[in-house]
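Hi C.,

You asked whether I'd gotten around to modeling the 143-residue construct. I have! Everything is below, sequence then structure, no commentary in between.
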Amino acid sequence: MASSPLLRRYGVTAPAARADLTEALRCRDTILVALDGAIPLGMAWIVVTRALDRSAYLRLLLVSHDRRSSGIGAALLAEAERHARASGSRHMILLVTTTNRRARSFYVRQGYRYVGAMPSFARPRIGEALYVKSWPKPAHRGS
């Protein structure tokens, strides 16, 4: 996955990716992996937080380049959303590179709405777009 064009654009090397994932697991972030046997086809990285009205942050959604448009990304995203909701999150937020029209369209099709631009937020000279998806507040159950 470290050879992903997305990660290369952000200057992520294989050792840095391993270190980031090790830190994610230490911090109890959620890493979901789609496998074909022992071969990883995609992954989703979710950070559940109480910030921003109990938002979960989809830090990364990657699908192997040769398996794009096969439903893996949608399945990983759906599972990430299920996990976030089960953890008490009321929203999922994510950033997409502004020039990545394919990803931006994908998230809109999945029910995310564009919130605004965040130029040079993650990396200098790379524009990001912020998206959010909210879920209804669970009904209060009295005793």
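If it helps when you're writing up: The radius of gyration is 15 Å.

Thanks,
B.
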